[in-house]
Amino acid sequence: MTIKEAQEEIIDEFSMFDDWMQRYEYIIELGKSLPLIDEKYQVEENLIKGCQSQVWLHAEEREGKIYFTANSDAILTKGIIAILIRVFSGQTAVNITAANLDFIDEIGLKEHLSPTRANGLVSMIKQIKMYALAYQAKS
Description:
The protein is mostly helical and 139 residues long. It is 54% helix and 12% strand.
């Protein structure tokens, strides 16, 4: 699945809900299905800076694609990183760095988060793209 297809799927899923309480519940459910980071990667150097909650993100490259795992100590934040991982995991570094993220505005995520959580979302995206740039530079 391409990044765009994953984004379209998420937009469709969010459009099924009538209000933001239902969407928050859905985000929390997505967090529960997050492929968890191995405990050995749940270390200081994998913490995303700029997040109110603790969010660990690990990336590894396999066969030219980058795969992400993560965890957070906050249930909503865990759901937000789960959405991002669903979009970006299993994609090439080039596609990740070039990705358009309009889907976040389309589902209304940023505007329905507290300012500190919205900053955390930006930090998560930045970290995902930094990993992709680093892998791109290696190859």
